[in-house]
Specification:
Largest sheet: 22 strands, antiparallel, barrel
Distance between the termini: 44 Å
Number of strands: 39
Helix content: under 10%
């Protein structure tokens, strides 16, 4: 394992070395306007907003956007993403119930468990790199529930055209309206990017450290559900409810070090030809753990326990490196191929002896693999494909995906894709240990690979509509299932469905505008075909926003205000298990079918966007039957505000 830490030290020394070789330009002047007079060395033109770029992992450039649109209203939340397909819990920072399922998967190995804690856990594909002509700072603030705030502070600067670094921290603390529901999270990231003047050598890397803590209360007692839905005044103060337990918390902590660099051994670019060959090396090391602790065991909820107090902790160390080459040719296209090496170490500190069965404490493996990618643009068509294969007898896994994009005209774009994936289920399906007797299992030798195939089609047209259709087939679908409930004790266990399962999903979006008024509509239809109800989703999800927008005060302020209607049809909603930090399939309780209305006012003054929202303002007159999961109520009516402030210096 020492080789991993050697690579980390090399990465740190590389970053320090770059910093020492780059001098900061003279002091910047200017305000918040998009055009600046000062810029980093190497930027020849006057700085404008289209020069502030961010890059995803595919090195696609995305222009920094400071405009005010209805999509910004949808994204102004804890995740800073459109959560159309998610149902949030009562407190900000808690988990989300998924209303939809995406079978598209390009992983070849299992994922770490506690997926309900991962909504705000930044994965590799969430990390962006930047290139900016002048320093850029973004501050995002939003109020929380009872004694808390959400703040995301971000800063990036190019010390020269060749070298950029970014540093950011997102922090949240929110007490919540229910007992023992506090959330406290932090996401730190440092990103750096470098290239030589002739761009022969290029490098980027980042460090991400995250801790996501949630107090857990098990939801409302079953006998209190009637009191909650009654709407009586004495129960509107949610702190009067005694939850199932008040002494539990779980935490997900992780740190990831990533470094990628490449060297161009052949660069031949002119007006007629483009031939280039680059050698590429990538290194990634991630350490993470999930821990559930409880002062006094809740045997009436989870079942019998080995000890009076609970302290479950599982760790994963995942190291991966790859070495390959990239060849670009005008005629052939863009081809990449690499050989990778993976070392995983997942598990616990001791074995478990239970009813004559020995449950091991660790899954360890190291193996080689191959991966490749291809892309080509020809006469308006863009073809992309990539795949990967593990050369392992234990961690058997592979994926292959391809996409075809066609832009018919300035308004209409079509695309289609196929994905084929085979990999082991997530680690907590394969091995889990707990101080609770019911939560101990080992299935590495019993569970087969989950095999998924998906076809998807997309239509994008501002004039007509945006549409997405995907069809999925899943073999060996793996899930947590509610086996039975005896004396209020729910027996949850991992299951693998040994029959094929088909899933269809159709999403339509269209906005109608008349003058300064607009109606934005998004509707999703879903259907699952299987012999048993193992994958439950609502048939209909809809969001409709009627809003007004205009420029005021001689166009010095942009204003948007309106009402958003959210709804999903009634179905057997997944339950939440706070010990596993996972959702499970249940077919006893139907939830949904309730409307959620939000009133909002958003405004932009120069580079500052201000958000005001009255969330779920209809809660008092449409019935108190709103839940995010069985026994876990959704949010009551609340007023929240926040802002996004961009500084371009």
């Amino acid at each position: 394992m020492q080789i991993k830490y050697f690579f980390i030290i090399v990465f740190c020394l590389f970053t320090v070395g770059l910093s020492s070789q780059t001098k900061l330009n003279k002091a910047y002047t200017g305000g918040q306007d998009s055009a600046m007079s000062k810029k980093a060395k190497g930027f020849k033109e006057l700085a404008t907003i289209d020069m502030y770029l961010q890059y995803n992992n595919a090195q696609d450039s995305i222009q920094v956007d400071t405009t005010l649109t209805i999509k910004k209203e949808y994204k102004f939340n804890y995740l800073q993403k459109d959560n159309f397909e998610l149902m949030p819990f009562a407190n900000i920072g808690q988990t989300y119930n998924t209303l939809s399922f995406n079978a598209w998967d390009n992983s070849t190995s299992p994922l770490f468990g506690a997926r309900a804690r991962h909504f705000n856990y930044l994965e590799h594909y969430d990390i962006m790199s930047y290139e900016v002509p002048t320093p850029w700072t973004r501050l995002t603030y939003k109020t929380a529930f009872e004694q808390g705030q959400l703040l995301d502070a971000f800063f990036t600067v190019n010390l020269s055209k060749q070298f950029n670094f970014s540093i950011a921290y997102k922090g949240l603390r929110s007490l919540g309206n229910y007992q023992n529901a506090l959330t406290s999270t932090g996401n730190f990231r440092f990103i750096s990017k470098y290239k030589t003047k002739n761009e022969k050598y290029q490098a980027k890397g980042y460090v991400v450290m995250q801790d996501l803590l949630n107090q857990e209360n098990g939801g409302l007692e079953t006998e209190d559900l009637e009191n909650f839905t009654s709407g009586e005044v004495e129960f509107l103060d949610r702190s009067v409810f005694d939850p199932v337990f008040e002494d539990a918390e779980n935490i997900l902590k992780g740190k990831r070090f990533y470094f990628e660099h490449s060297y161009g051994v052949l660069q031949n670019k002119d007006s007629l030809s483009n031939n280039s060959i680059r050698l590429i090396n990538k290194i990634s090391l991630e350490d993470k753990y999930y821990q559930y602790s409880q002062t006094e065991s809740a045997t009436t909820f989870f079942g019998d326990a080995f000890t009076n107090s609970i302290n479950d902790k599982v760790k994963l160390e995942n190291f991966k490196t790859s070495f390959g080459l990239n060849y670009i040719n005008n005629v052939i296209g863009d081809i990449s191929f690499a050989v990778n090496y993976t070392d995983v170490n997942y598990g616990y500190n001791s074995i478990v002896l239970l009813a004559g069965e020995t449950i091991t404490n660790r899954i360890k493996s190291n193996y080689f693999g191959v991966e490749g990618a291809y892309s080509k643009t020809y006469k308006g068509f863009n073809i992309t494909g990539k795949g990967g294969l593990n050369l392992s007898d234990t961690f058997v896994g592979s994926y292959l995906e391809g996409e075809l994009n066609l832009k018919l005209n300035e308004d209409i774009a079509l695309s289609g894709g196929i994905s084929i994936n085979s990999r082991l289920p997530n680690y907590n399906y394969l091995l889990y240990q707990s101080d609770y007797l019911n939560y101990n299992w080992y299935n590495l030798e019993n569970f087969n690979n989950v095999n998924t195939q998906q076809l998807k089609f997309n239509l994008k047209s501002q004039k007509w509509l945006n549409a997405t259709l995907d069809l999925s087939n899943i073999d060996n679908y793996t899930y947590f299932n509610l086996e039975e409930t005896l004396d209020d004790v729910k027996k949850i266990s991992p299951k693998q469905y040994n029959k094929p399962l088909q899933y269809l999903r159709l999403k339509l979006q269209k906005e109608f505008k008349v003058g300064n008024f607009a109606l934005d509509n998004t509707v999703m239809y879903q259907n699952v075909v299987s012999d048993d109800d193992v994958l439950n989703v609502p048939a209909i999800i809809t969001r409709n926003t009627l809003y007004y927008s205009n420029d005021l005060f001689k166009k010095s302020m942009r204003l948007q205000t309106g009402v958003t209607f959210n709804y999903f049809s009634e179905y057997n909603m997944n339950g939440y298990d706070p010990l596993l930090a996972e959702f499970y399939t249940q077919n006893e309780t139907k939830l949904g079918g309730f409307p959620r209305l939000d009133f909002f006012i958003t405004a932009k003054v120069r580079q500052t966007r201000i958000f005001f929202k009255a969330e779920h303002f209809n809660s008092s007159f449409t019935g108190y039957d709103y839940f995010s999961a069985p026994n876990n109520p959704y949010r009551d009516f609340t007023i929240r505000f926040g802002l996004v402030w961009d500084f371009f210096l």
